[in-house]
């Protein structure tokens, strides 16, 4: 009898491939660190789709979009949600997957006139039995009022588009330093935050070198089990302004 499947997930704000304060381009090192985790699903926020100026001026800037460069041959499936568009390029959220992505939609949850934010919803098909898993890559705003509205839109999206009995993973950069999202998503959607249920509180992820604020999350629903996976302080502390989070999720 086959054991129930489990998946390993990783979420990280890539800071467009630069260290904190944009001092150094580290996308190649970031790709190596992401590969070392060997996650089945990788949730990326603030990932560069294109940037004409950097492509001309930054040494070793890849020709491919950053999410494709990171995915390379390890994650044959990927989806990109373009959130911010400017004259010289764009950035947004991306999901890298070792499983087929059968559908994906990017939902613009930006508050008019402020930061561009989005929810990238992907439907995945697991190879054993063809079970479908839903994944939402999240990047919320810096303003608490904006986050409140964006959490409402996340709840609306899940209620409308995700079956009640389907496995669901919601992960990303919530910018939720006051821990307001946890009760909203637990009561409203039945989501469990992996680190809260393991340790009693969310993980500190910002700033990456000396984490003080609990900004990033991994939520699950309809999971048989879930546990945080430890990640080393180095090299991650030097690869972005956010520390990553990883978890093992039994389905």
From TrEMBL:
Endonuclease/exonuclease/phosphatase domain span: 11-242
Gene3D superfamilies reported for this sequence: Endonuclease/exonuclease/phosphatase
Pfam families membership: Exo_endo_phos
UniProt protein name: Endonuclease/exonuclease/phosphatase domain-containing protein
Organism of origin: Rubrivivax gelatinosus (Rhodocyclus gelatinosus)
Lineage: Bacteria, Pseudomonadati, Pseudomonadota, Betaproteobacteria, Burkholderiales
């Amino acid at each position: 009898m086959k054991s129930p499947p489990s998946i390993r997930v990783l979420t990280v704000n890539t800071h467009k491939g630069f260290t904190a304060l944009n001092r150094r381009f580290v996308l190649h090192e970031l790709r190596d660190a992401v590969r070392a985790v060997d996650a089945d699903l990788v949730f990326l926020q603030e990932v560069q789709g294109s940037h004409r100026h950097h492509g001309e001026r930054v040494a070793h800037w890849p020709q491919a979009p950053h999410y494709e460069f990171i995915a390379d041959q390890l994650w044959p499936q990927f989806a990109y949600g373009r959130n911010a568009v400017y004259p010289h390029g764009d950035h947004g959220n991306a999901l890298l997957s070792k499983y087929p992505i059968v559908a994906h939609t990017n939902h613009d949850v930006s508050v008019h006139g402020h930061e561009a934010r989005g929810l990238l919803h992907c439907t995945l098909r697991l190879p054993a039995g063809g079970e479908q898993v839903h994944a939402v890559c999240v990047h919320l705003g810096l303003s608490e009022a904006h986050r409140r509205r964006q959490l409402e839109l996340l709840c609306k999206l899940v209620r409308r588009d995700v079956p009640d009995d389907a496995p669901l993973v919601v992960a990303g950069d919530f910018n939720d330093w006051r821990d307001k999202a946890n009760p909203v998503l637990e009561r409203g959607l039945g989501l469990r935050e992996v680190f809260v249920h393991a340790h009693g509180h969310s993980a500190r992820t910002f700033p990456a070198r000396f984490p003080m604020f609990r900004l990033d999350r991994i939520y699950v629903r309809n999971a048989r089990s879930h546990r945080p996976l430890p990640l080393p302080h180095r090299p991650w502390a030097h690869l972005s302004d956010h520390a990553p989070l990883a978890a093992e999720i039994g389905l």
